[in-house]
User: Fold these one by one.
Assistant:
Number 1:
Amino acid sequence: MARTDAIVLGAGIVGVSVALHLVKRGLAVALVDRGGAGEETSYGNAGIIEGNTIFPAAFPTDLAALMRIALKRAPEANYHLSFLPQVVPWLMAFRRASRPQRLIETAHAMRPLFARAVGEHETLMQETGASRYLRKNGWLKLYRSAGSFAALKPEFEFAAQLGIPLEALDVDGACALEPSLAPVFRHAVFWPQAASLSDPLAVTRAYAARFAALGGVTLKGDARSLHRAGQYWRVETDAGALDAEAAVVALGPWTPDVLGPLGIRLPLGIKRGYHRHYTAQGNAALSRPVLDNDAGYLITPMAQGIRLTTGIELAARDAAPTPVQFDRLMPKLRELFPLGARVDEKTWLGSRPCFPDSRPVIGRAPGEAGLWLAFGHAHWGLTLGPATGRLISEMMTGATPFCDPAPYGAERF
Ligand SMILES: Cc1cc2nc3c(=O)[nH]c(=O)nc-3n(C[C@H](O)[C@H](O)[C@H](O)COP(=O)(O)OP(=O)(O)OC[C@H]3O[C@@H](n4cnc5c(N)ncnc54)[C@H](O)[C@@H]3O)c2cc1C
């Protein structure tokens, strides 16, 4: 029977970062995925490495916004009616976690991870030659109504407390940063310390290549074959069965497929999201991610073109795509930016793996010796992959963790 020190299941940005950190600490590691590294959720995101994130996405409190969503008129959110009965308990928990005091607690709990996000990526990028995909030119958020801008007050106050720089801009200030934008908004906020990637897939692949160069083994296999075999965890791969004393489950939105049969039930929800790519008309250009907050979408320059990502869709992970949000947001986008032709024929659909309290699970699986969990990074898995890899590898090897991992424990549920 083939044996290794640790098996990492899932080669998204989280699993690849965990595997790379473990191999750098001298463990023999096998990284198992049914596909190629970084090809799922870690490919299709908006590419933002957001060390500045303060408050997580919250349940809407504005009645008008709720009505718009309920009536399926909101660009920022959609839902499948048939999925609502299933998602209601999760939504209620999400609503409770969205109370102002809870958001502040979450912001404090997540700070150590976000504070290291950009730096941990940069370290891996320098080792892997991936620095060319990194843009350190911030993130611009636009607000069309005075009300949505005024609602940022608590975030501004918290940013000041933490010493996170931001610039509140008028239309001219925002257009000086992004000259192709039309003045259809009233306010803007520039977060200079946010970074972004021009090609998230290429970055995950570069980290995976570094893992292989350091002696890590990459295998194809179905993670659902994970089971106990005596003192070991065993997984079936194309190269045969493989045993290890430690296994890390980092399967993003697919993690419940493996944990469910083991009797581990954690309240993971799914917020689906879509993307499409476009050219820009004439000399129009975009140099950084731009969020059109009130219209519920984000545009960001990528290797493939200008990537338009949608807000959230509450629907079963594997339900057929329903990209209706594009119909609602395209008129708003076309008035903001001179968009050219569509580049891709197929709309990409992915699933953000989200716990109701907007914290990931990083640490031991409850009741299962040798089983570790690293998933549920919601809107910020690309940002937090490398910091997660460092933290869990420190925990697994008995090193002092760079921060207290308690807020991310599965035991909190
Ligand atoms: C529209 C959208 C925009 C986003 N924008 C951002 C952003 O700007 N910044 C940011 O930080 N985050 C963003 N995110 C979130 C981020 O993309 C995710 O949190 C992150 O990619 C999750 O990474 P992961 O490694 O946990 O999961 P994944 O990347 O999904 O990796 C899971 C892996 O598990 C494998 N797998 C699944 N089932 C099996 C099986 N049975 N056997 C073997 N392998 C299996 C898959 O093949 C996959 O490779 C966005 C997400 C979406 C949907």
Number 2:
Amino acid sequence: MSYWHADLYNFCPRCGGPLEKRLIKAGEPERLVCKVCEFIFYIDPKLAAIALVPLDGGLVMVRRSIEPGYGLWVVPGGFVDAGEPVEETVVRETWEETFLRVKVVRLLNLYSYQNHRTVVAAYLTQYLAGELSPGDETLEAQVFGLKEIPWEKIAFQSTRDAIKDYLKIANT
Ligand SMILES: [Zn+2]
């Protein structure tokens, strides 16, 4: 078994030597190992954080102006910077994409999928201030009624799954 994305990298980030795939431990995926300095280049998961922002009885969504998923809907969110508390990512990305100030209420759920490198942490948030308008990487920002979620035009499985989990608590 090999990482599906191991072919993305050819050279050692430490010394510039060539990487090769090597089975280090039985039962684990092959790792990328530097032929020169033996550095093991682990392909780690990437963490993204997204915000469920209830507003006016609906849910805030944004339409992406970048790939992947150009033109499709998601909820505000993005990649967590190394060293950044995840709750701060949620607040920062929501501001950058929607100009809404929110605070984190709690973690809703965590989503990971076979052969997908990104792991998504979805947070329930509470609106504090601001007027909804499209910011970074966003064509449109809109509140959708809970019965009007654009399910066929959602960019990612994690977005769909997070909204489904949100609806379970929003409808009770
Ligand atoms: Zn090396």
